[in-house]
Q: What sequence folds into this?
């Protein structure tokens, strides 16, 4: 299965943040949209980084009071790992495992078109195994 097929199933809505926004604004956007990370895009819509819940928590711990006034551009992960719409989900799972990341921005012709998460991959695998199980049980019981 390709990343594009996962995006077709889950949708391509992406919540982003501007690099000049504050960490406080980014935290609010994370909570309001119930997402775990925000792709950071510049004025032209180009992906320039990612800010995650984990980044915000680490800032709160290490910087303490006033961390919310920092700019996203100062604390984001630059040059994040990405994938393309025509990559296989297996390749993306390997990338997530190798880099220990839960969400991967998806690019098409250099533009951000979605985000694929560990949850998306787990759901895909669960649905596939459930479907195979149903077919095997039908075959065993002669329902086919």
A:
């Amino acid at each position: 299965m390709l990343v594009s097929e996962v995006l077709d199933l889950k949708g391509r809505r992406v919540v982003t943040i501007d690099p000049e926004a504050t960490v406080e604004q980014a935290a609010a956007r994370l909570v309001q949209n119930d997402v775990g990370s925000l792709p950071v895009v510049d004025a032209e819509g180009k992906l320039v980084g990612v800010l995650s819940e984990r980044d915000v928590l680490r800032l709160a711990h290490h910087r303490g009071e006033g961390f919310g006034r920092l700019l996203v551009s100062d604390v984001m992960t630059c040059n994040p790992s990405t994938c393309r719409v025509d990559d296989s989900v297996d390749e993306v799972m390997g990338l997530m495992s190798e880099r220990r990341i839960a969400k991967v921005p998806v690019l098409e012709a250099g533009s951000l078109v979605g985000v694929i998460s560990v949850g998306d991959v787990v759901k895909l695998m669960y649905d596939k195994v459930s479907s195979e199980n149903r077919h095997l049980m039908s075959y065993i019981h002669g329902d086919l």
